[in-house]
Write a structure and sequence with these properties.
The chain is an alpha/beta fold. The chain folds into 3 domains: 119 residues, 3-Layer(aba) Sandwich (Rossmann fold), CATH 3.40.50.720; 195 residues, Dihydrodipicolinate Reductase, domain 2, CATH 3.30.360; 93 residues, no CATH class. Helix content is 39%, strand content 19%. The protein has 18 helices and 15 strands. A 9-stranded mixed sheet has the order 14-13-12-11-7-10-9-8-15. The chain binds nicotinamide-adenine-dinucleotide. The site of nicotinamide-adenine-dinucleotide (NAD) has 24 residues, from helix 1.
């Protein structure tokens, strides 16, 4: 029996503490967080208490943690994008293997530097392309490789970012400004470009891209709206982006639950919207209802340290970035972008990313010479259908979404933790190595260059210039 893998966590924020922390608590025989580096004292204390990390293994920053001798088998780097480069290079050079959140880094040069350093230092570096580990995309890959679709001709893949997610992350929040963070096609779609690479097993040889910021601009502000939703906005009742509805009422989360295939979830979602007081009363004794009526998960837990408190959430909206009017923010990233891709085999693909969807999730069609595959992977539904051309039965595979697994990228967050442990124990080869993830990042940077300069990119030439 192998010993549990010991991990030093950089960044006990949303991803580090809430997405990956629970896996270690559930499977302590596989993995344990034995040290943490986090500047926020409350987050550090909360994570340390949950994982029984002794005071001498609690650090104020990754810099401080690396001053100690090597104290764990590996690092999980869940700091913000702009911190990835320096912290990853330093940890790899200290001798740590690493599971690194995406994107690898925010510039092409830094991304290449990290991948090269991991190779030179002979360290395992896996990137959190968590979608590869979901039940849905694992099945899709199996179908793709089985040959049942015939010769693959075209893939139309859409990343439909829901209106409230767009507003939260790309208008009001951390990824709103390309110079401060990264282009949206990298921040949001490196997962999708990675999936296309994984499905086809081919490196793109040509791409083009177009897109812009159409809606979230001052000239689209309705007359008389204040700069903050909580300052008496005249269109509070109808504006989809009204912050108290998103964060205090958690309306979009409840609506996502109403769209679930699971009838129990649907009923809970409807009750919580139509009869909030009754739902709240029932929630006192029925936990799945309480999970929704007292919802304190994403995005609510990213705007305050006390997401369980309505007062704390309201205070964040009155004073912080997430209460700002979406038409009066300092955002400049696109709200829609299309990438056209061509592969050496002749397969073509389109990736459509936009931030104006009624629900959050990916939809795709894969056109083959023998069948068409339709797929939907959202917060509430995950299914794929294979429609044969000519005689034959349509096959449908659906992946149950329950109250317990509705979050966590459809099993992807847990899946990558399991895969990382297995890789470090030598039980399986890594699936999302940095060398592989480099391809999705190269494509994202090339797509952004193509969009900005309105040119098509010869990817072979692009790779030669950026080896
Ligand atoms: N794989 C995915 O699908 C996915 C989804 C969302 C976010 N992400 C990525 O995960 C990363 C983290 O995102 P998040 O939403 O958890 O951010 P977050 O802000 O909630 O967490 C980052 C944490 O890092 C801490 N930190 C800052 N400076 C530090 C330092 N010097 N040393 C140690 N810790 C430090 C911050 O205090 C914070 O607690 C980002 O790169 C983001 O793009 C990935």
């Amino acid at each position: 029996m192998s010993k549990p893998v010991q991990i030093l966590l950089f960044g006990a924020g949303n991803r580090g503490a809430d997405s990956y922390g629970p896996y270690a608590l559930k499977f302590p025989d596989q993995v344990q967080f034995t040290a943490v580096a986090e500047p926020d004292p409350e987050r550090r204390a909360r994570f340390s208490a949950a994982h029984h990390i002794p005071p001498e293994r609690q650090f104020n920053s990754w810099e401080e943690a690396l001053q100690a001798e090597k104290i764990a088998d590996a690092v999980l780097n869940a700091t913000q994008d702009g911190t990835h480069h320096e912290s990853t290079i330093a940890a790899l050079k200290t001798g740590y293997d690493m599971l690194l959140e995406k994107p690898i880094a925010t510039t092409l040069e830094e991304t290449i530097h990290i991948v090269r350093t991991a190779k030179e230092a002979d360290r395992t570096l896996m990137v959190c392309h968590v979608l590869r580990y979901t039940y849905f995309f694992q099945k899709l890959k199996e179908v793709f490789d089985s040959g049942c679709l015939g010769q693959i001709v075209h893939i139309a893949h859409s990343e439909n970012v829901a209106y409230y997610h767009m507003a939260h992350s790309f208008v009001r929040g951390n990824w709103r400004n390309a110079a401060e963070s990264a282009p949206m096609i990298l921040a949001k779609c490196c997962h999708d470009l990675d999936l296309l690479y994984w499905f086809t097993g081919e490196r793109v040889d040509w791409l083009s891209s177009t897109g812009n910021l159409r809606h979230f601009k001052p000239e689209n502000a309705p007359p008389g709206v204040p700069s903050r939703c909580t300052d008496g906005c005249p269109i509070a009742g109808t504006c989809p982006f009204f912050a108290p509805r998103i964060y205090l009422e958690s309306y979009p989360i409840k609506a996502a639950v109403v769209s679930a295939e699971n009838p129990v979830l649907r009923a809970i979602g409807k009750l919580s919207i139509a009869h909030p007081r009754l739902a709240d009363a029932l929630g006192a004794v029925i936990k799945p209802i309480r999970t929704l009526t007292r919802y304190s998960g994403w995005p609510r837990n990213t705007i305050t340290r006390h997401p369980e408190s309505d007062d704390a959430v309201l205070h964040a909206l009155q004073t912080g970035p997430y209460g700002r009017c979406v038409y009066h923010c300092d955002n400049d990233v696109v709200d829609h972008q299309v990438v056209n891709l061509r592969y050496p085999s002749g397969i073509t693909a389109t990736l459509t990313m936009h931030g104006h969807s009624y629900e959050e999730g990916r939809t795709l069609r894969i056109e083959g010479s023998k069948a068409t595959l339709l797929g939907k992977f959202t917060y509430g539904q995950a299914w794929l259908e294979i429609h044969p051309h000519g005689p034959g039965q349509t096959q449908r595979h659906s992946f149950p979404i329950t109250v317990d697994n509705a979050s966590g990228h459809g099993g992807g967050d847990a899946g990558i933790m399991r895969a990382f442990v297995q890789t470090l124990r030598g039980q399986s080869p890594p699936l999302t190595r940095a060398e592989d993830a480099l391809e999705s990042h190269l494509l994202a940077f090339a797509a952004e260059a193509a969009r900005l300069d309105a040119v098509a990119v010869d990817m072979d030439a692009f790779r030669q210039v950026n080896p």
